[in-house]
Amino acid sequence: MSGLFAGTINVRQDWPCNSIKSAADLASPFDTVYVHPGRYVEYDIVIDKPLHIIGIDRPVIDGDHKSEIITVKSDSVLIKGFRIRNVGFSFTKDWAGIKIDNKDHCTIEDNEILDSYFGIYLKKSDHSVIRNNYLKSKAENEVNSGNGIHLWYCENIRIENNRIHGHRDGIYFEFVEHSKIIGNLSEGNIRYGLHFMFSNHDDYIGNTFKNNGTGVAVMFSDHINMKKNHFVDNWGTTNYGLLFKEIYDGELSENIFENNTTAIFADGSNRIKIINNEFRGNGWAMNIFSSCMDNEIAYNNFISNTFDLTTNGKRNNNNFHDNFWDQYTGYDLDKDGVGDVPYRPVRLFSYLIGRIPESIILLRSFFIDMINIAEKVAPVLTPQSLTDERPRMKLIVYDRNKGD
Amino acid sequence: MLKILKYSFFDLIRSRWSIIYFFFYFVTGMVLLYLSNDVSKAVASLMNVTFILTPLIGTIFGVMNFYNSREFIELLLAQPVPRKNIFLGMFLGISTSLSLSLFLGMGLPFLIFGTFGSDQIMSLVFLLISGIFLTFIFTALAFYIALVNENRLKGFGLAILIWLFMAFIYDGVFLLLLIFLQEYPIEKFAIAMSLFNPVDLSRILIMLKLDISALMGYTGAVFNKFFGNNSGMLISIAALIIWSAVPVFLILKKSAKKDF
Questions:
Q1: Per-residue pLDDT tens for B97-110?
Q2: ipTM greater than 0.95, yes or no?
Q3: Do residue A362 and residue B175 have CB atoms under 8 angstroms apart?
Q4: Which of A94, A113, A261, B92 is a plausible cystine mate for A283, CB 3.0–4.6 Å?
Q5: Which residues form the domain of A127?
Q6: pLDDT of B187-198, one tens digit each?
Q7: In a 10 Å sphere around its CB, with 0-12 CB exposed, 13-18 middle and 19+ buried, how is residue B257 labelled?
């Protein structure tokens, strides 16, 4: 083939070229490799030229639990349409279904990665895209399981419309900048649905995090934009819909938190805007430690949560205003839609549960209601300054369908 | 027995008080559903009303009815009817008529608002079940107290005291004990404590439906077992059945021996 026209190479089980490995050796840069249906038992496939590798009718690449399956060591590689299964497990090496090693502008699209250790692993890669993949594994504990989509030292990555099940972390970001996570579903992962470590200026928009250990954990990161996500059914003792640990300057807006044990848990997190979210049917809508400062919590809807808010100290350095609290019992005489008496979202009973967890068995008892009212009238144990001065009388309506 | 039940049932169901009782629940239910538009919220508010009111009404009706129909009882006792049947018939007559008022009064608003399709409706079902249990338990307790005490004032006072104790004081004492004993492993103790109060048991049944997300946040293994699977519900219902059976048994035992 001349250099101007990209060649094609076909891989079929009954042809001389019957393995992806040999095709990758034969191919010249910028060729397209078509892999025909069948089951290819191969591992340690190294792609070191810019190739498009496309599976026809989803051929299976079975790693036989031996090692890593595909390692990309070239820029501009496309891998599309495969079912990749049985990645090897190692305590010392992070073997993955597809790993991109130090190269940029790659695309991983429309693959199924089953029973993997790590699913898709990007190491120092920039401008790559991971799109429409389905990843499913059977993680049992955190020690010997890997992450679905794992990024380390990457920039400008786009992760879009993937479905990730049964890994340790669904998506893991460490030192990742300026990347976008859009429209993914992360479900049934044993630790976190999405995990940020030391990653700044990233967006995640329109994702669903369901039934994970914790929906999303954002740690030691800043300028994270979190929008229109759905956090559902993250149940358990140390399980949260969204966990903030030492994060700064983020924005959390138009998300829905439903049926989580704790919807948002925040520790040491500053200057976050929490706006226009909906909290429905959670055990605790928010648990904000007193180490958090200058956060703005406004225009949110709090509906049918067992507890709206709890905290561990007596100080409050955050600004709550203009939220709708369905447990608000005040009145609005001047009819401006804003309650005339401030709302105290922290109840005495949530403080009590913090001290004596067993007292949760008295939840909704009439006696507890009475002491809650007494505390509301004259706060002694709950933070006196923690109030919403402008509680809304009606549900706050905003247009979830408008553009970003 | 059925005849006495029927007589007592229809006597009560036609009375003004049953109708007022029915309308009270009906109006409360309608208003709450109309205002909140959210089944779980309406159930939560109705729960507070129900768990105070059903035991109170059961208690008052039980005591009053017994004292008022004293002549009727004496008349019946003179007939060749087994004692067991007289008292059981009367007790069942009161409790079923009260339960019917509760059931219709609370069920109809939900039917009218067409909320039966929602998945929250199980919490209403549990509210109805526990309300009916409470009616039976407290009517039986009141009946027994009235049977034991000839003095009306004393009987009435005692019955109200039991209601007050179960509905309010018990939980206060419970909480104090939890605070005093917080250094010890008190999970089993806490569960045992709640088994000894039918109001708490009913509350737990509803809590399991409405607050399961919060309950899952608790660390202890015993609670997790109790709340986490169906065992909490089964244990609570079993305890409620025992709670309704014991006073009835006491009524039968006492009535067999009592001089009139």
A1: 999 999 999 989 88
A2: no
A3: yes
A4: A261
A5: 59-377
A6: 888 888 889 999
A7: exposed
